[in-house]
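Is this the right way to post structure tokens for a design question? Let me know if I should format differently. Anyway, here goes:
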């Protein structure tokens, strides 16, 4: 060690330096499409030098990579480098696995979604609404719609407010696939969640999307029913396109 410095002090300084380098590498990325090249080299060097790769460092790298939308690279970093190459045990941290679940869904790499969700549950911390939302996206993507709807009910039973953006996306997917019964089921679950929470969860987009689907089928009665609920719940009608469509449809059927 340098004069006046103990070996422990040098090791501590080196650890801080490598931690800073690893985080900087994730934030800045690399000139290649694979952002994790520099991070991988940094983590390999740490292992060779006997510098601990702490759980906090892994969490920070994972959170930053996820926020930078490096979804596939983040999954590969855990699976191929940390676990396979460096022999590190899979993280049991809720935040890490929640991020990995999100990365899997966003990158449409569904092979490990259930594994990450099990780890989130096994962490001992209650899954957040966003974790349920990601699993719902996963189940919809692989065609297990009943499982997705079951999760929506579980979410409400735990007094968690569903993510309306995710639910609106699922409603839109159902409408586009002409699965109107499922679309309306999601809408009504959002309404029930709103009743439980004491405020509206379903928004005008939720109603408009379902009404648009029914208007395409010429089902004026369903559109009228949803419009009545929309008004009764005092959801602000900011979009008039579907409302006008319903009126045009109603009068065209009369003629």
């Amino acid at each position: 060690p340098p004069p006046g410095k103990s070996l422990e002090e040098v090791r501590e300084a080196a650890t801080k330096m490598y931690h800073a380098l690893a985080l900087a590498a994730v934030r800045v990325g690399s000139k290649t499409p694979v952002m994790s090249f520099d991070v991988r080299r940094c983590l390999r060097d740490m292992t060779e030098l006997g510098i601990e790769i702490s759980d906090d460092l892994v969490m920070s790298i994972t959170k930053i990579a996820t926020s930078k939308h490096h979804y596939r690279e983040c999954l590969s970093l855990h699976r191929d480098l940390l676990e396979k190459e460096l022999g590190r045990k899979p993280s049991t941290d809720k935040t890490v696995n929640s991020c990995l679940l999100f990365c899997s869904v966003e990158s449409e790499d569904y092979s490990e979604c259930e594994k990450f969700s099990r780890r989130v549950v096994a962490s001992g911390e209650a899954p957040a609404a966003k974790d349920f939302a990601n699993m719902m996206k996963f189940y919809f993507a692989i065609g297990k719609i009943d499982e997705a709807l079951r999760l929506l009910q579980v979410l409400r039973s735990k007094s968690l407010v569903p993510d309306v953006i995710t639910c609106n996306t699922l409603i839109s997917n159902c409408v586009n696939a002409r699965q109107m019964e499922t679309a309306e089921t999601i809408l009504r679950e959002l309404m029930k969640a709103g009743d439980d929470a004491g405020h509206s969860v379903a928004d005008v987009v939720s109603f408009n999307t379902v009404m648009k689907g029914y208007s395409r089928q010429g089902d004026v009665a369903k559109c009228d029913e949803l419009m009545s609920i929309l008004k009764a719940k005092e959801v602000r009608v900011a979009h008039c396109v579907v409302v006008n469509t319903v009126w045009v449809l109603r009068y065209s059927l009369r003629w």
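Format looks fine. Someone answered above. Worth noting: Residues 1-89 form one domain. The chain has a mean pLDDT of 84.
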